[in-house]
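Hi W.,

Here's what went into the run:
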Amino acid sequence: VRGSVVSCGVDIGGTFTDCVLTDGEGNVHTGKSPTTRQGLAEGFFSAIEIAARKAGYPLTDALAELPYLAHGTTVATNIVVQRTGARVALLTTRGHGDAVFIQRAAGRVAGLSMDELLDLELGTKPEPLVPRDLVFEIDERVDSRGNLLVPLNEAATLAALERATSAGVDAIAISFLWGFRNPRNEQRAKELVADHGALFTSVSHEVAPNWGEYERTMTTIINSYVGPDTASYIDDLRRELDERGFRGRFSVMKSNGGVSSARAASRYPVTLLFSGPAGALAGSQGLLDTLGVTDGNGITTDMGGTSFDIGLIVDGKPQRSEESLAARFAFHLPTIEIISIGSGGGSIAWIDPVTGGLKVGPRSAGAEPGPAAYARGGSDPTVTDADIVLGYINPDYFLGGELELRADLAEEAVGRLGKQLGLSMLETAAGIRTIVDAAMADAVRANTVARGYDPRIFDVLAFGGAGPLHAADYARELGSLGVIVPKADLSALWSAMGVAQADLVDVQERHAMLSEPFAAETVGAIAEELKSRGAELLKQHEMPLDGIELTVTAKMKYRLQVNTVDVPVETGDRQECEELIDRFEQRYRELFGAGSGHRAAGVEITGFLCTAVGSHRGATATLAPSAAPGRPAAAEPHGSRSVYWTHEGAHLETAIFRQQQIRPGWSTAGPAILELPDTTITVPPDYTVAVDGHGSVRLTRQANRRD
Amino acid sequence: VATTLTTAASDSKWDGTVDGYWPPNGPLDPMPLAYWPRGSEPDPVTFEVIRHRLFRVVEEQGLTIMKVSGSPVATFAHDFSSSLLTPEGEPVYFGPWCQPQMGHLDRNVKWILTHRSERPGIHDGDMFLGNDPWIGTNHQSDINVLCPVFVEDKLLCWVASVMHVSDVGGSTPGGFCPDARNVYDEPMPTPLHTYVEKGEVRPDAEDSLLRRSRLPDQLRLDVRALIASNNVACERLLELVKRYDVETVAGSMRRIIDDSERAFKQRIAELPDGTWSRESYLDIASPGDRGLYPVKLRLVKEGEHLTFDHEGTHPQIGSLNTTAGAWRSAVLAAVNPLLCWDLMYAIGGPMRQVHFEPVPGSIVTASHPAAVSNSAVAIPLTIALATACISKMMAACAVPQLRRRAMAAAAGTYPVSIFSGVDASGDPFATMALDPMGGGLGAFSFRDGANTGGHLWDPVSTMPNVEFTEQYFPILYLYRREATDSGGAGYFRGGNSGVFAVTPHGVPAVTVDVSAAGWAVPTSEGLFGGQPGCPNGARVAKGAEVGAAMASGSVPQALEETEATISPVPPKLRDLELREGDIFELWWNAGGGFGDPLARDPEMVVADVALNAVSVDHARRVYGVVVSDGVLDEAATKLMRQQLGLTIDEPHELLAGPSRDASGALRCPSCGSDVGELDSAGETQGTIVRELPLGEISPLAAPAKLFVDAEVRFRTHACAKCGRAVEGRVVASEKGVD
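Here's what came out:
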């Protein structure tokens, strides 16, 4: 029996390409296919085909009927990480071409973890994306107030372009000092480039109109570096979809947490970098709204094989950051903030030769050779091996039984390490798990408590292959409200789910340097202009919209301090301008502590950010209850086994539940383990578990239990 | 652990009044306060969890300073620190920030315990603030705040934070006083005193601190940031004690130190016993002076101990000095990255094995009331000297992994230059140029030093964007670039440093003050024949008419492009007036090279030329590599290298420095000849001595005679058989050397 297909999300990750296909009744069908590195399209269509088949469609019919398809891709990320991008020439202000080599000095250690910083041997700068002979310094100058001091030397620009073309460049980046304050010279250079020939061109005031020449220039360069290949990837995919009969709307996931039409995305491909985790966060944000069970505060945690990604949703909004790292280059772009540490199922446990202590990660066994239990030649004990030894993972039902695990090899590996430490196999396994859980809790703490957020008023949202397996333990360590595993049957495909659900999002930046008292005419005019431009940008995606939300925030700071705080601006009228400083000070206190503001120095606005969100039908037509209505919740467990619970420090007979038992409305008390096809959820003895109408699993800690 | 101070201590009180505070090693006996002793030994898993958390606490403590202060100095220059110490004062962790600030804190704890236990007492909720270099801080601008952490009325540990604050008075904005005759011309040092009492800032203490400052609001905020960071650390530690128990936490702290001690001992045991030393010079004691003053460091390695002394260092003079505590802290700042790179800032253990033999009254062990505010001179120089001594010891080691890590010195002096005046809106401003945070690092035994890679003493050295500085201060950058030919030449090249030029913008004039050294003599020396990185330097072009140049379509890219009179700026100068259209240019010292530049792979030199890291002329002159039209001229290169002294045209060799054979003889890295024994100064018997004027090897060096009377030359000792340099150092002629 087949209904209609209404939306589809496809997310290409490092290992798997995931597809979620939603039908007219809100049922979600999933497809998982290995990522095909040589031609990403193959895995793309194969994942759709698997999901379509489950929905009762051959691929061609599904594509022909599908009104909406959203895509998250690692193509841009891969280009930067594998350094296979375009040959780019940079046009920049004379005297400042070295900014991209100096990298504010910190480029030497950018991307190193805290425990690598002291090691001078590791501290090298990355190979530049633009070689020195393709950096062209041009006579021109604008000052900090936007005064044009030296107009663009057009002859020099043309000469540089000649040399760049004869050096065989594929793309151009233009970034001048203060180009975002007064774009005249950049605009003129862009015209000259356009007259010169059809090269992919990025201009700093368009790509990253923000203060700070190193990061702005890097954003511009990266946009050009990934530009030609990303654009042709999207074009090729679009064409193939077309050939296969797809007539719906196609959008692409961005790192700002929203989607964009393919055309707009091809123009600013830098916005596609690291969009996968952003997709997961976008999905979580929607879920918190739908569930309505929290006040909108969530810590999203995605524990995979090699890394642990943390995101924050505060008052229903994902936390943003403006600076990111790509291949160790700092660049500026408003994105959903994701913090990553090297803890995952594949993290290797080892003995520090220096101190003799037990350590876990950051080195990972990855997928190849993988944990010892994979029997692919890995002999180092990993977190997954410890989870098997302790009884959390059922070796016969990993990935729904698709991958057979060898418990004996896990035991052997863990036992061998234990012997060196003078610990039993069980103590060692429990130790590995305790250490990795504590490290993840420490990382979350560093990104909540240390930044003014109290994790005790947050839910932990867990997804990824290993997240739900560990979440209850690190949530306890944080004192969080509870754990939500969103739509548990989709947990491992959560990024694809988020991609399918994401709204259109366009973020605009506008630099300004305003000192108090703020003039209503200036602030009001900027807010007005940003909003109307935001609405226009949304229209350019040519997608039917259900609603538009335009938010403007002012970036505010105390004059002599560096920290900026985003303060919402409604209309920017006189009354609001007067209130802005109070709002800013209040927020500053919350984030940086009472008495940390230097009021006497004065308050200033350094820029504005406008977020335009367009909700569209493609994204809203999902999330039906995951079970047929009226079906009773099964209570009898699938079975039971003895599991060693690290917090209790004891083996307890533990009920095991499978997908068919955990229907909406079902609940039980821990200890329990939920073995779903793609993920395993642990419910420690001090938790209860319940399933809501959407199939999301919620774990609540019994506060009166021992802490 | 026995104190090694007995000889020096006998004629000095070392109590922090006249000579720096230098207590005996080991805990005070008796401890004046009740404290949690070693406690129970945690199991390995709990220990790892607590260890990780404790480091995170120290990290969060430091991030809080940055967050609350929000000052550019904290954010960009990273000039702050956080640290966790045992009740007795042993460091558990240094934070990953400005390393030389933290080597004082153990003594700060001891001083507080000794001097403040009875009256006013040390209570829960108290914090002690001080900036007295004789008790323990790098200079008066570095304010230390220490906070005892109590659990059930017994001391669990101390948390401490330090920050270089914007201004605490003194003759010059920013508090580096180039013309100070003694400490009375400088910001006033204050011994550690109760600043926060039972959780509240003492208003009398705060008022008397802020009264000294040109920027009292900023200072209040900076000190509040230090207090807030200690509070955060306290809170986290108490949570940890609640989660586990106090004895386990106390035991974990001590185990971290013991582990690092054991690891350090093992590492040291692999290094050969011996003595290594290095000498350099500081130039110009005060404005108008023309002297050069030797600073020496010697390392004696014996068994599991390292001992440092400074014999031969010039007596304290002018504004070049620093205190003994800062000298020790500077040495530790080199020990940490060079020998403890994998101990994750747990330096308490290694500190038990590192000893010092200070003698009062020298430039690096100045007695009160010497001027000590300019310690950005002697402290980095000590770090550079320690880098050289430790690296020479490592290079003599049989263990390849250790030998490999030997590295030449980097940025031996920070050229402090302060811009001040009145901005376009009529508000006063003062700012220190943070561009030299992009120091050139020294070359390793296996690769070139990082260009503009930062500093050894701060793992995350950062410089602000040009747009940041231009936004807040009325200056315009004509250029900021990596300085060609700045890195010391070598088999592996030292990292290049940078240069910038600015002009006043939107105001009629800006004042420049310079408090530095390392002008006439490079302070980042090479190793094993590697040449020194360029010295610091500055020039001014009066009447350069930058505005007119811009009006006609270009921004000057060299002082020589203008019609102006170009004058050198000396390293100690107050009140240089920079008028509209004038240009001030400053460059900073680069990393030293490793091994003989004449043995460098010519193709690497060609690549450097293509990247403009090395000029064609410099390639020919110091590397003997002839590059024409971007291509290597092999025949000319061979000839040139012979002319420069390389007599055997040997094939490309892997060894950058000399090695020891099985019999212990020192072998030339190229031809394998016995080059005799390097003595403690690095000079050998079986070698030929060559000398070159400094200008020959360092095109950026201003002629030394502009600043000092002495003549400065680079002397190499080359293998008598093949001519390859095996050692080299900067020497100054006796004339004029005091």
